[in-house]
Design brief:
The complex is a heterodimer. By secondary structure, chain A is of the alpha+beta class. Chain A has five helices and twelve strands. Classes of the chains: A alpha+beta, B alpha/beta.
Chain lengths: 217, 646
């Protein structure tokens, strides 16, 4: 069994694949931690907690999803003090989950394997952009991809958006396909790309299709 | 009832509009609904619809236990649905007004005007302008006199409505007292009226026959030349005088299927009321007077409810709530049972309102593994024994210091001390004593835990409340309050000491409104028209708007706050019967002037008025359910309306 101990306690780490539906579009990253903690507690699974003055649940969400987005394959690592079968885990968490939290997969993770943040390199989004002029938008995309730098200001900080965009294209029917870097200190935001394309991000709903992990082999 | 056409956005479009606009407001999670355990019933198939409102932001509204109870009861009824609505924050309000989007319910996004009843919880007075704003955003005419058959029926309850008069122009019917049973009786009456053809005054006459319901349109206050109340006239035969408060004879089971918010809220926890009412009789405390008699839940009921609520919600915190937890009969058994049963589940157990005695430290010690080691809170309310005798919270300073020592010895480093300034006959020496006592406690702490010891002093300002022995006393003036606060600011500084106080201008607002009469409705209206809302939020409180409103209406605010009222004056809330004999309150007031105290009323009944009024209820619920003595007098003839006290 994939098991390791700290302070004479056994901990079992699982990597869960989950989606965030429209019901949770406006629930932020920190609030999602609490939603996960409560889901695990409702499922009556023995969540592991950190030691110390203020014990924290051992939950680690791989990559923050920007407010307003939906997703279907985000990742979270959860540590338990028992070792249920992954299939059972998916079932129990699925039953206990709140509306909009969709648990699709669980996998037991090797002791000592790297944190999700060290593994995730990029994230892929699709963004429906109905009602836009196709030729115009296409031209703006080409111009953006041709640019060497895309200097933008976010929260009073100047940064270059261009190197964060790995792929950007326009698919049918009026759908932006976007791959952004998602490494710590270099995370692209879909709303920033939309703004750079002169699109108002407020009514648009980027949907994260998947997180891309570094190949460890 | 469909009147969505009044606004630009139609019902089916509200959701679409939200989807496209919520990213431009702060904390959009306030406006979406869709949380775990919300109840969504089929709108078309459910013939009676109630909107439950708290006129404050989501974070505060979701923490209101009264509405959670009503939500549970109403949605448990076939044919009835209840949905939630809270005040939008200013950014969202601006966006909604500019897009002409009406206020809507969180569950199904229906305009509030489409509901049959809008039921508001008004526990405190600073919600009054927000109530007007909420009605306005809902397209419901603000004034009772402007409403017609098609408009929602506006009901309000909560502690501040024990003086309903300031809000009487805006509320169709008040519930005086506890809502658990009366809400269903109100629904029956409103439903029958809606399906008939009578006008609104017919509705009010029907509502007035329900025990605990006050329909202000059926009553006319008459004032004397000096501005005091002469009498309240009942305009129709159905309008009773006085209006007796409603109580439930036994507390129903606690709500366990609580809605779990997906954003952080003020009280993010399972609330379980362990008992209602209080036997202590602190003279400043309105809650302790109006929530009598004391009724307790059993330990088994509380533990089972907690178990069920944990399974349904996954919350990591519980609050075992009451006005005085130490006085719960089986408090030791409860705390032991809870700490034992939930020890391994990482549950934070909150036990507020503990008495100042070493037993409280023992209780908290039992919860050591399951409580956050923040500060330990004690509420002496006043710093001298003389003052504590006047307010009837007699604790000796020695006992307080010994308790503080015990707290520090048991591992707490911070003690929070709650005081009030402005008690009747308070002198500047009594205020100085607050600072001295805090320093004494800190000294004890230093001795026990060294430099880590902290004392946080929270000093609010006393506001005399209706239905209390202090209902006649003047409230401090702005100048008095500011002088006292300056003294404390000067004294309570330095390492280990922290001092929090209440904005004196907000205290004035609370003081005008809590003992106001019906004429204040105009002041509230004009203050709101001048932009007053979110009065409880320091940065939003618009004192100027209120001053202008008083001036415009021609009323003097100090008439309501700083005047000592003679005990024979007819008070604006005298027609509301909280089941307290006026002679009990008067006597207690006079005793306070002599420094005489009353003991806990479980030791000796002081005949406050509860038992004679509710003798029949007590007879039907003998034993430990109530803390009042048993009724031994012979059974009286049952009045024509059962359960309505004669």
């Amino acid at each position: 069994m994939l098991r390791y101990t700290r302070n004479d306690m056994s901990y079992f780490r699982y990597r869960l694949t989950f989606g965030k539906g429209p019901e949770l579009r406006f629930t932020g990253h920190l609030d999602l931690y609490r939603a996960w903690e409560r889901t695990v507690r409702r499922a009556k699974l023995p969540l592991a907690y950190s030691e110390g003055y203020k014990p924290r649940p051992k939950i680690n969400i791989g990559a923050a999803l920007p407010l307003g987005c939906t997703s279907e394959a985000d990742l979270v690592d959860v540590e338990l003090t028992t070792s249920p079968d992954p299939g059972e885990l998916v079932e129990r968490l699925g039953e206990a989950a709140l509306p909009g939290l969709l648990v699709s997969r669980a996998e037991a993770i090797q002791a000592g394997s790297p944190k999700l943040q060290k593994l995730i390199t990029s994230s892929e989004y699709v963004i429906p952009v109905p009602g836009q002029n196709r030729e115009d938008l296409h031209a703006r995309i080409q111009a953006m991809l041709a640019a060497e730098k895309l200097l933008r200001v976010r929260r009073d900080r100047k940064y270059d958006l261009r190197p964060l965009i790995e792929e950007l294209s326009l698919a049918d029917p009026m759908l932006l396909r976007l791959r952004l870097t998602a490494r710590s200190g270099a995370t692209g935001r879909p709303d920033e790309v939309l703004r750079a394309l002169e699109l108002n991000p407020d009514p648009l709903v980027p949907h994260r299709l998947r997180l891309i992990l570094r190949d460890l082999s | 009832m469909e009147n969505t056409a009044k606004r630009g956005v139609r019902l089916s479009n509200i959701e679409l509009w939200l989807d496209q606009n919520l990213l431009s407001v702060q904390k959009p999670g306030r406006y979406t609904g869709g949380e775990l355990n919300q109840v969504v019933k089929d709108w078309a198939d459910t013939p009676f619809r109630v909107a439950l409102a708290f006129p404050e932001i989501y974070e505060l509204g979701m923490s209101n236990l009264g509405l959670a109870i009503l939500y549970d009861i109403l949605n448990g009824q076939p044919g009835v649905l209840a949905e939630r609505v809270y005040s939008p924050w200013t950014d969202m309000e601006q966006l909604m007004r500019s897009a002409r989007v009406p206020l809507y319910s969180l569950e199904t996004k229906h305009p509030i005007a489409d509901f049959d009843i809008l039921a508001l919880s008004l526990p405190y007075e600073s919600l009054y302008t927000n109530t007007l704003n909420l009605l306005d955003l809902s397209d419901i005419p603000l004034l009772v006199s402007d409403r017609g058959r098609a408009d929602a029926v506006v009901i309000a309850g909560g502690h501040s409505t024990y003086n309903p008069e300031p809000m009487a122009d805006f509320v169709d019917a008040f519930v005086i007292g506890e809502g658990e049973e009366v809400i269903l009786e109100i629904i029956e009456v409103v439903r029958a009226w809606r399906d008939g053809s009578g006008d609104r005054s017919e509705l009010y006459r029907k509502l007035a026959t329900i025990w605990g319901v006050y329909a202000p349109a059926l009553y006319q206050p008459h004032f004397m030349e000096d501005g005091t109340l002469d009498h309240v006239e009942a305009l129709v035969s159905e309008a009773r005088l006085p209006i007796i408060k409603r109580i439930v004879s036994k507390l129903p089971a606690p709500v366990t299927n609580l809605i779990v918010p997906t954003i952080d809220i003020t009280h993010n926890r399972i609330p379980i009321e362990i008992m209602r009412g209080c036997t202590r009789g602190c003279r400043f405390c309105q809650a302790g007077m109006i929530t009598r008699p004391v009724r307790e839940r059993t330990v088994e009921e509380i533990v089972e409810a907690l178990e069920a609520a944990l399974a349904a919600t996954g919350f990591e915190e519980v609050g075992l709530l009451s006005l005085s937890s130490s006085d719960y009969d089986e408090i030791l058994a409860l705390v032991s049972a809870v700490s034992e049963r939930f020890r391994d589940r990482r549950l934070n157990i909150g036990l507020p309102s503990l008495r100042i005695e070493s037993f409280s430290v023992e209780l908290m010690d039992l919860l050591k593994d399951s409580s956050q080691r923040g500060g330990f809170t004690l509420a002496p309310e006043a710093a001298t024994e003389r003052m504590r005798e006047i307010i009837n919270k007699p604790v000796s300073t020695g006992q307080l210091l010994a308790t503080a020592e015990g707290i520090y010895q048991h591992g707490w480093h911070t003690i929070k001390l709650y005081f009030m300034i402005g008690h009747p006959s308070e002198t500047i020496e009594d205020v100085q004593a607050i600072a001295d006592l805090c320093k004494q406690v800190l000294k004890v702490g230093r001795r026990v835990v060294g430099k880590r010891a902290r004392v946080n002093a929270g000093v609010s300002t006393f506001v005399p409340k209706p239905h209390t022995p202090f209902q006649w006393v003047p409230c401090d003036t702005l100048e008095q309050i500011e002088a006292k606060q300056r003294l404390l600011q000067r004294e309570l500084r330095g390492p280990g000491l922290k001092f929090n106080w209440t904005d004196p201008l907000e205290t004035m607002l609370e003081a005008w409104l809590s003992r106001g009469d019906r004429r204040l409705g105009q002041v509230i209206y004009h203050a709101w028209q001048r932009g007053a809302k979110f009065d409880g939020w320091g940065e939003h409180f618009n004192y100027q708007a209120w001053m202008e409103a008083f001036d415009y209406v021609g009323l003097d605010p100090s008439f309501y706050t700083h005047r000592e009222r003679p005990v024979d004056e007819t008070l604006p809330w005298d027609h509301i019967d909280a089941a307290l004999h006026k002679r009990f309150l008067t006597e207690d007031y006079l005793w306070s002037l002599e420094g005489r105290t009353r003991v806990d009323c479980r030791e000796r009944c002081f005949a406050c008025g509860i038992l004679p009024k509710f003798a029949e209820l007590r007879r039907q619920n003998p034993g430990e359910v109530w803390e009042c003595p048993e009724v031994k007098s012979p059974r009286r003839e049952i009045s024509t309306i059962p359960l309505v006290p004669a």
